[in-house]
Write a structure and sequence with these properties.
By secondary structure, this protein is an alpha+beta fold. It contains 8 helices and 6 strands, in the order H-H-E-E-H-E-H-H-E-E-H-E-H-H. Helices cover 48% and strands 12% of the residues.
């Protein structure tokens, strides 16, 4: 997995080894400086969001394991099924979710998620939780120090 993150995916496909400087989650690969420029100019990928590889590598491992494509059909997820609480590619919809009523486009589901009130509330709760844990940690350390002194 680490070589996947540090080597440019496009260059690697062409048997060239160059370090990646950014990560494109939609393409699921790293890009070197030269390929990053082509990626930003190409009609098929110019709307993709990229992040510096250093930021991408700092994400928790469970986040890094999230895929953008269906493992069964090797196609990009395009639909979200509320009934089964799962993303689906177009072939999954036909094969498995034909009777499901609440199917939404993935783009509609994730649009504006960072600005949603639920996201902001969760962010606030996590900040409070982090502060509380820091306080508990300091209290425990003080308790241990006090016990050792006694």
């Amino acid at each position: 997995m680490s070589s996947k993150l540090t080597v440019c995916g496009v260059c690697e496909y062409r048997n060239i080894t160059k370090p990646s400087v950014v990560w494109c989650s939609e393409c699921d690969e790293g890009l070197c400086d030269e390929c990053k420029e082509h990626h930003a100019a190409s009609k098929g990928s110019r709307e993709h969001s990229i992040v510096p590889i250093s930021e991408y590598q700092q994400l928790p491992s469970n986040v890094l394991e999230i895929t953008q494509s269906c493992q069964k059909h090797n196609e990009k997820y395009v639909i979200f099924c509320k009934k089964h609480d799962c993303p689906c590619c177009r072939r999954c919809v036909v094969e498995t979710h034909d009777d499901c009523k609440e199917l939404n486009a993935i783009d509609d589901v994730i649009r504006n998620v960072k600005s949603s009130s639920a996201f902001l509330e969760m962010e606030h709760m996590l900040a409070e939780l982090s502060e509380n844990l820091q306080r508990i940690k300091i209290d425990r350390q003080n308790n241990i120090k006090s016990l050792q002194e006694n």
